[in-house]
């Protein structure tokens, strides 16, 4: 059972992104009001805003946390064509007394000539690395060679995607069997039939990122993309928010079978495709085990998806964007606001509207 | 609005009211129906709102356009532009406040009659009303009226008014406008610019013009076809939208030479374009004969400096109803709320949703942002655990020290929540394996220990070709069956299956008793039967039937059993072979399958998937020849590996096969916790060194870190170092973690 409650966010304009730190004890939000806010969770479970500052001179699209191993570090990206790295300064007693924390800008990444649409830290095992993507279709990968000096970032890679980029996701797998990998989505809406999801893989020999896969079946604008936490699985799961929710699995074909040195080959399957949001799907997010996917869409609802033991994905919960329950007659047979309960499950299987289609 | 198509307007201040206008004006009141039933006579607008008709005004025929007075008082004062160019002030269902009584019914008359296209109240001086008219020769087309101005006889001769209008209340006619603009032109749309009371933007015949009332001889203008529906962005006063046919043009008044932007052209002509009053940069558009409101989300603040980059625009569409939409109106204060009206005057009230962004926290709560608001959705603790996700299960299991009981290994199943049959099988298997390893080590150190953790598959293989079958007597019956002589390996296998206890005794009695105690009568009966003790089977079934939780039908089954006959063509056999398929309980089913089977062909038992693997394997050990047994075990092992079924660990043991099986289990469930603890239970070092095992362990430790279970992780590391001395459990991450905290 899930119960939704509202938190006074006090942003002066639309909130574009919410992001948790590694432990889920801290949260960052960013907004069109050009600010980022940091929230800390109290012992009682309430969220308190402990910092709020102007970060950019345009809408802030995304905010993301680095692994705590690198300190308390945030990155943000904006319409103002920049991305920025922020670090919390500990020890200013005045602020501490007021329950406020202090954040300073460590660097501004100014390489993009257009709006920077997404920013993501690489998985911890790769070191302190950061990827951005921008409306001009370029993914940039930066590295801080000295993790103690966050003001030094060097641009390591520029990957041209040919299409305006809207979102990126690192493959979180830290298995030695998997090379570093990043998926890029495009929201290009011009009426071409080009594939909107590309996957790039790092090649140890050439020391470059090369295209490993293109999801040819995704031709509509993509608004969000997310690799599931790998959690020891032998394959990767990728969720795509486009005109519907799609879940792909990418199973690496064993290296021995492919010629060495080239990019990894994958068996790609689409394991679920849901149009319950009726129209555009805006965001997708995986839980910590990559077993439950949350999505939001134009119907103003948040939906939860989960696979049963047969790998059939089903809707297991639905809530309206304002936290109120979805009443019976309005939403395709889902009637309870209780996420994670099996009642909507049953109804879905009855009307058959949301069971996953499986084909390769 | 010309007769057929209704228009709709929200009241600017009394925000629960709106007016629908076609040939008459109808005032409605909106009510929430969340906590109440739909009242008689009210119209449903949405799931949670309904409208009641308050009053109708049909005093003003030939309406062309309507504008609601912007001041708070009087509430329901409306200006109506008519087909003859007159503008009439009228009111709806109000107690006629004496102060404004004079205003109601007042008419503003242009010199020459022609259609009034548009009306706009000045947002700063509430008495100023601008009217845009069609062209009439060289006459002015934009007239600005002061609604408080009195009739002035010296300008308009009394008799002329009498003649032309024939009105009784001549004092209510005003013919002298405050300003006259747009000579020799037509005006199609108007809006006041909020930055100055005296600036008026007008869509004229072939251009957009800004009139400055401080100097009416001058105007700023730009030639364009997009002259309809001019409207100022309420959040950026320099941003203006206008349209022509299917195309919307967005203008920046600071560089008024050309549109800063034109939106994708629609196939049908547009009828209305409106900025959302409660949110920046959201423009709603409607085309003719369409049931869709198209929205353009302009997600950035326009900058005055020459910006060559295209702004980010997200195009969306909403379909509030199935019918064509005649018109729509944004709610003045409710966020993103809109009401639409169809040509047959049905109405629908709905909200345009913001793009929701969302994120999961590691402790299974979901946070999302909708508009300017944040919502948190947390899991309630007291939930039925079967429905819980593996993330929650693993967290709870970590708290209950799951996996850490290395003495009573089977107890880990209880620690895991006592609900998952596969985990039960796994931990019992590991428990038995541990017992016999220790047993074996005592007897002959370094001998068979490794074989035990290797699972039944290897055990059985090691005894190939050493077993012969012999006839055994059914106890209590004068009948015989072929049973394999049990060699050491088969006895070990049976022990791992849990059928017999350690030691040389091959008695299943204790096992049967424990099953009976747990109320598993059907299973106990089947095991008894497979040990050729049909009397005990019947006895167990009777016991089950008479017990509290048991099923009375078990007596019937016992009765059927007691009629068992060896004869091939007996009615008993015939009935049992057909009816057994209708039995729901798999153990009852396999009992009859066994009794009716031909000698040496036990597929009905061996491939009954609903029967526990350990029982089927034990059965196979008793009845199959070496070759058959090997084939069967091989086949079953592959099946289990494919399915990632933990019951199969009994067969694979903690070997590479076991890792393969566990890999499919992890692929299927994500349960790295069980995978880690299982492999740390007794795997040989080379298995522990398998990259996959190391990766599960790494992932599980990472989960413990994310949950801030520092003690649990320390315990896990200690547990791990006991079995795998090569692991370096302590300190490495703690130092890193604290690096920047100190």
From TrEMBL, chain A:
Region called Disordered, residue ranges: 324-360
UniProt GO BP: attachment of mitotic spindle microtubules to kinetochore; cell division; cellular response to amino acid starvation; defense response to Gram-positive bacterium; nuclear pore organization; positive regulation of TORC1 signaling; protein transport; protein-containing complex localization
Gene Ontology CC terms, in alphabetical order: GATOR2 complex; kinetochore; lysosomal membrane; nuclear pore outer ring
Segments of skewed composition (Low complexity): 345-360
Polar residues compositional bias, start-end: 324-344
Repeat (WD) residue spans along the chain: 8-40, 274-306
SMART domains from the UniProt entry: WD40
Pfam entry (one): WD40
Keywords from the named record: Cell cycle, Cell division, Centromere, Chromosome partition, Kinetochore, Lysosome, Mitosis, mRNA transport, Nuclear pore complex, Nucleus, Protein transport, Repeat, Translocation, Transport, WD repeat
Principal location: nucleus
Alphabetical list of InterPro entries matching this protein: Sec13/Seh1_fam (IPR037363), WD40/YVTN_repeat-like_dom_sf (IPR015943), WD40_PAC1 (IPR020472), WD40_repeat_dom_sf (IPR036322), WD40_rpt (IPR001680)
Gene Ontology terms for molecular function: structural molecule activity
Places the protein is found: Chromosome, Centromere, Kinetochore; Lysosome membrane; Nucleus, Nuclear pore complex
Function: Component of the Nup107-160 subcomplex of the nuclear pore complex (NPC). The Nup107-160 subcomplex is required for the assembly of a functional NPC. The Nup107-160 subcomplex is also required for normal kinetochore microtubule attachment, mitotic progression and chromosome segregation. This subunit plays a role in recruitment of the Nup107-160 subcomplex to the kinetochore.
Similarity remark: Belongs to the WD repeat SEC13 family.
Quaternary assembly: Component of the Nup107-160 subcomplex of the nuclear pore complex (NPC). The Nup107-160 subcomplex includes NUP160, NUP133, NUP107, NUP98, NUP85, NUP43, NUP37, SEH1 and SEC13. The SEH1 subunit appears to be only weakly associated with the Nup107-160 subcomplex. Component of the GATOR2 subcomplex, composed of MIOS, SEC13, SEH1L, WDR24 and WDR59. The GATOR2 complex interacts with CASTOR1 and CASTOR2; the interaction is negatively regulated by arginine. The GATOR2 complex interacts with SESN1, SESN2 and SESN3; the interaction is negatively regulated by amino acids.
Protein name as it appears in the record: Nucleoporin SEH1
Organism: Dipodomys ordii (Ord's kangaroo rat)
Gene, per the UniProt record: Seh1l
UniProtKB/TrEMBL annotation, chain B:
GO cellular component: lysosomal membrane
Pfam families xrefs: MIOS_a-sol (PF21719), MIOS_WD40 (PF21720)
GO biological process, one term: cellular response to amino acid starvation
SMART domains (UniProt xref): WD40
MF annotations from Gene Ontology: zinc ion binding
InterPro entries per the UniProt record, alphabetical: MIOS/Sea4, MIOS_a-sol, WD40/YVTN_repeat-like_dom_sf, WD40_repeat_dom_sf, WD40_rpt
Domain MIOS-like alpha-solenoid: 394-623
Keyword check for Ligase: no
Main location: membrane
Compartment(s) of residence: Lysosome membrane
Record's keyword terms, sorted: Lysosome, Membrane, Metal-binding, Repeat, WD repeat, Zinc, Zinc-finger
Transmembrane segments: none
Subunit-structure text: Component of the GATOR2 subcomplex, composed of MIOS, SEC13, SEH1L, WDR24 and WDR59. The GATOR2 complex interacts with CASTOR1 and CASTOR2; the interaction is negatively regulated by arginine. CASTOR1 and CASTOR2 convey leucine availability via direct interaction with MIOS. The GATOR2 complex interacts with SESN1, SESN2 and SESN3; the interaction is negatively regulated by amino acids.
Protein purpose: As a component of the GATOR2 complex, functions as an activator of the amino acid-sensing branch of the mTORC1 signaling pathway. The GATOR2 complex indirectly activates mTORC1 through the inhibition of the GATOR1 subcomplex. GATOR2 probably acts as an E3 ubiquitin-protein ligase toward GATOR1. In the presence of abundant amino acids, the GATOR2 complex mediates ubiquitination of the NPRL2 core component of the GATOR1 complex, leading to GATOR1 inactivation. In the absence of amino acids, GATOR2 is inhibited, activating the GATOR1 complex.
Family according to the record: Belongs to the WD repeat mio family.
Protein name as it appears in the record: GATOR2 complex protein MIOS
Organism this protein belongs to: Dipodomys ordii
């Amino acid at each position: 059972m899930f119960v939704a409650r509202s938190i006074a966010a006090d942003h002066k304009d639309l909130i574009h992104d919410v992001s948790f730190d590694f432990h889920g004890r801290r949260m960052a939000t960013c907004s069109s009001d050009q600010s980022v806010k940091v929230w800390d969770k109290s012992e009682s479970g309430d969220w308190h805003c402990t910092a709020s500052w102007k970060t950019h001179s345009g809408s802030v699209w995304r905010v993301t946390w680095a692994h705590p191993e690198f300190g308390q570090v945030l990155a943000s990206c904006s319409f103002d064509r920049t991305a920025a790295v922020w670090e919390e300064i500990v020890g200013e007693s005045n602020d501490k007394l007021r329950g406020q924390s202090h954040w300073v800008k460590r660097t501004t990444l100014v390489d993009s000539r257009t709006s920077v649409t997404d920013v993501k830290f690489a998985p911890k095992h790769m070191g302190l690395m950061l990827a951005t993507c921008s409306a001009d279709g370029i993914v940039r990968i930066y590295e801080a060679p000295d993790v103690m000096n966050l003001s030094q970032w060097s641009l390591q890679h520029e990957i041209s995607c040919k299409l305006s980029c809207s979102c990126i996701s690192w493959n979180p797998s830290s298995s030695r069997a998997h090379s570093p990998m990043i998926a890029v989505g495009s929201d290009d809406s011009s009426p071409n039939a080009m594939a909107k999801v590309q996957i790039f893989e790092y090649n140890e020999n050439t020391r470059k990122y090369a295209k490993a896969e293109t999801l040819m079946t995704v031709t509509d604008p993509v608004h969000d993309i997310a690799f599931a936490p790998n959690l020891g699985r032998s394959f990767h799961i990728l969720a795509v928010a486009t005109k519907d929710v799609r879940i792909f699995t990418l199973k690496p074909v064993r290296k021995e079978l492919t010629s060495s040195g080239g990019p990894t080959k994958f068996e790609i399957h689409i394991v679920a495709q849901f149009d319950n949001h009726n129209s555009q799907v805006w965001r997708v997010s995986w839980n910590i085990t990559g077993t439950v996917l949350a999505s939001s869409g134009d119907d103003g609802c948040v939906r939860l998806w989960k696979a049963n033991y047969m790998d059939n994905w089903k809707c297991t919960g639905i809530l309206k964007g304002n936290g109120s329950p979805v009443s019976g007659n309005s939403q395709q047979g889902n009637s309870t606001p209780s996420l994670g309960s099996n009642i909507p499950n049953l109804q879905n299987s009855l009307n058959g509207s949301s069971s996953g289609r499986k084909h390769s | 609005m010309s007769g057929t198509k209704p228009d709709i307007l929200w009241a600017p201040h009394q925000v629960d009211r709106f007016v629908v206008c076609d040939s008459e004006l109808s005032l409605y009141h909106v009510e929430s129906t969340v906590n109440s039933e739909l009242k008689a006579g009210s119209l449903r607008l949405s799931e949670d709102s309904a409208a009641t008709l308050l009053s109708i005004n049909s005093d003003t025929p030939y309406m062309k356009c309507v504008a609601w007075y912007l001041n708070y008082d009087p509430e329901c004062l409306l200006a109506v532009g008519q087909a003859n160019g007159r503008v009439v002030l009228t009111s709806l269902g109000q107690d006629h406040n004496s102060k404004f009584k004079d205003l109601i019914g007042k008419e503003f008359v242009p010199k020459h009659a022609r259609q009034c296209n548009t009306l706009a109240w000045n947002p700063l001086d509430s008495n100023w009303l601008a009217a845009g008219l069609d062209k009439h020769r060289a006459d002015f087309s934009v007239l600005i009226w002061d609604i408080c101005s009195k009739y002035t006889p010296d300008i308009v001769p009394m008799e002329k008014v009498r003649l032309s209008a024939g009105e009784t209340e001549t004092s209510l006619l005003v013919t002298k406008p405050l300003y006259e603009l747009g000579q020799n032109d037509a005006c199609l749309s108007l809006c006041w610019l909020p930055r100055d009371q005296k600036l008026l933007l007008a869509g004229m015949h072939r251009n957009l013009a800004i009139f400055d009332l401080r100097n009416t001889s001058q105007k700023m203008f730009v030639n364009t076809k997009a002259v309809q529906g001019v409207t100022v962005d309420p959040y950026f006063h320099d941003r203006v939208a206008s349209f022509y046919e299917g195309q919307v043009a967005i203008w920046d008044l600071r560089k008024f030479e050309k549109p800063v932007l034109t939106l994708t052209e629609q196939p049908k002509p547009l009828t209305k374009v409106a900025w959302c009053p409660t949110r920046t940069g959201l423009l709603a558009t409607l085309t003719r004969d369409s049931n869709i409101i198209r929205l353009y989300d302009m997600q950035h603040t326009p900058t005055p400096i020459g910006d060559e980059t295209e702004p980010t625009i997200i195009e969306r569409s909403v379909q509030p109803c199935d019918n064509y939409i005649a018109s729509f109106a944004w709610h003045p204060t409710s966020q993103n709320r809109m009401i639409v009206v169809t040509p047959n005057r049905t109405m629908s009230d709905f909200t345009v949703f913001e793009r929701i962004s969302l994120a999961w926290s590691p402790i299974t709560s979901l946070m999302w942002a909708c508009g300017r608001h944040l919502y948190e959705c947390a899991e309630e603790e007291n939930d039925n655990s079967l429905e819980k996700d593996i993330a929650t299960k693993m967290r709870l299991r970590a708290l209950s020290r799951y996996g850490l009981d290395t003495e009573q290994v089977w107890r880990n199943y209880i620690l895991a929540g006592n609900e998952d049959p596969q985990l039960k099988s796994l931990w019992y298997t590991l428990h038995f394996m541990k017992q016999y390893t220790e047993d074996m080590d005592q007897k002959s150190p370094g001998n068979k220990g490794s074989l035990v953790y290797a699972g039944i598959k290897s055990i059985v293989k090691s005894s190939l070709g050493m077993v012969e079958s012999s006839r055994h007597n059914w106890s209590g019956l004068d009948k015989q069956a072929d049973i394999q002589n049990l060699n050491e390996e088969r006895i070990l296998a049976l022990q791992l299956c849990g059928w017999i206890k350690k030691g040389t005794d091959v008695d299943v009695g204790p096992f049967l008793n424990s099953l009976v105690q747990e109320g598993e009568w059907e299973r106990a009966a089947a095991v008894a039967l497979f040990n050729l003790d049909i009397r005990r089977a019947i006895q167990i079934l009777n016991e089950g039937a008479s017990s509290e939780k048991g099923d009375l039908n078990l007596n019937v089954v016992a009765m059927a059993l007691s009629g068992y006959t060896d004869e091939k063509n007996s009615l008993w056999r015939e009935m049992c072979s057909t009816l057994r398929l209708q039995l729901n309980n798999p153990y009852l089913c396999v009992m009859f399958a066994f009794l009716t089977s031909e000698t040496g062909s036990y597929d009905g038992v061996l491939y009954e998937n609903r029967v526990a693997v350990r029982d089927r394997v034990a059965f196979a050990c008793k009845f199959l020849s070496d070759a058959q047994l090997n084939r069967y075990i091989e086949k079953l092992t592959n099946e289990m590996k494919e399915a990632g079924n933990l019951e199969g660990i009994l067969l694979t043991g903690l070997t590479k096969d076991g890792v393969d099986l566990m890999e499919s289990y992890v692929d299927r469930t994500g349960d790295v916790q069980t995978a880690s603890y299982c492999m740390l239970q007794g795997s040989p070092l080379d298995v522990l060194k398998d990259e996959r095992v190391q990766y599960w362990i790494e992932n599980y430790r990472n989960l413990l870190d994310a949950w801030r279970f520092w003690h649990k992780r320390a315990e896990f590391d200690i547990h791990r170092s006991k079995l795998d001395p090569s692991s370096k459990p302590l300190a490495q991450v703690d130092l890193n973690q604290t690096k920047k905290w100190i």
